Amino acid sequence: MASSSGTSSASFLLQNSGSEEDLQQLMDQRKRKRMVSNRESARRSRMRKQKHLDDLMTQLTQLGKENNQILTSMNVTTQHYLNIEHENSILRAQMAELSNRLESLNEIITFMNATNGGFGTEEPYTFTETTDGFMNNPWNYLYLNQPIMASADMLQY
């Protein structure tokens, strides 16, 4: 009996060590499988991260181009505004000068009407007569050779 119990325990140890080896191999296989899975997952994560970075770089380039277009458009618009403002300044100066001339001409007409035209006529000058017979009136020759002078620096607004 002793020998049979010793044999049975030896065979149990052999079976036990065989199953421990199988168990160890199974655990190693699972460990390798987990490592491969983790590596693959990490590789996919790096690829997603790289794709996100590439997308952000593309977006940065696109936004930079749009920003440059907006700046160019803004500069063109600003230059156009400055040109228009300059033209308006000249037109304001010309308007002021023409208004002064008109006022002077109206004063002359008023004076001439008060003195009966200065030519011994009894009829007063009227605006229609000055426009209809502009060249027939000798007073109008005084203003024919006077140019309209205006510059942008005359009136600063």
Automatic annotation (TrEMBL):
GO terms for cellular component: nucleus. It holds the Pfam family bZIP_1. It is found in: Nucleus. Residues 28-91 form the BZIP domain. Residues 81-115 form a coiled coil. PROSITE patterns: BZIP, BZIP_BASIC. This is BZIP domain-containing protein. GO terms for biological process: positive regulation of DNA-templated transcription. One of its GO terms (molecular function) is DNA-binding transcription factor activity. Residues 1-51 are annotated as: Disordered.
